[in-house]
Amino acid sequence: MTLTLNINGQDHPLDIDPDTPLLWALRDNLGLTGTKYGCGIGQCGACTVHIDGQAVRSCAMPVEACAAQRVTTIEALSPDRSHAIQRAWIEGQVPQCGYCQSGMIMAAVALLKENPKPSDADIDAAITNLCRCGTYPRVRAAIKAAAG
Ligand code: FES
To answer: Which intervals hold domain 2Fe-2S ferredoxin-type (predicted)?
Structure first.
């Protein structure tokens, strides 16, 4: 089946099974490997992207459900890393191993869009992504720094 996905502002017609998780279309069909595979069951958040501006776990989203929507991946956030969140992440040296961090960043951007001045409790409620290195205190601090 041919489906057209709008990814990072460009239409991509793909010959793909409509049940394919968006994560695999991004990584395998389009080479957008900034979106990571962690659990594959919508639990860890490593695969977080935006669909029409909302944070979504792409491993649990069939491509058919995304066909009429705008998908944004970490690659389109800011190619020169000048987005406020990316600057805060770099300045705060948030990542340890780094594997989960693109998903964390996408979740953080969606949070700040909805809530420009989140409290610690707001951050903890919104950012449910898992990090095996335990970078949560630095994630929280960087979100607050980006919020200004
Ligand atoms: Fe999608 Fe874990 S890989 S939530």
So the answer is: 1-77
Q: What are phi and psi of 119, to 5 degrees?
A: -80, 170
The pTM of this model reads 0.96
| Domain 84-147 architecture | Orthogonal Bundle (1.10)
Q: Is 103 in the pocket of ligand 1 (CB under 6 A)?
A: no
Q: Which fold has domain 2-75?
A: Ubiquitin-like (UB roll) (3.10.20)
> Boundaries of CATH 1.10.150.120 in the chain?
84-147
Q: Please name the residue whose Cα sits nearest to atom 4 of ligand 1.
A: 42
- What are the pLDDT tens digits along the chain (148 aa)? 899 999 999 999 999 999 999 999 999 999 999 999 999 999 999 999 999 999 999 999 999 999 989 999 999 998 788 899 999 999 999 999 999 999 999 999 999 999 999 999 999 999 999 999 999 999 999 999 999 8
ipTM: 0.98
CA of 119 to the centre of ligand 1 (A): 25
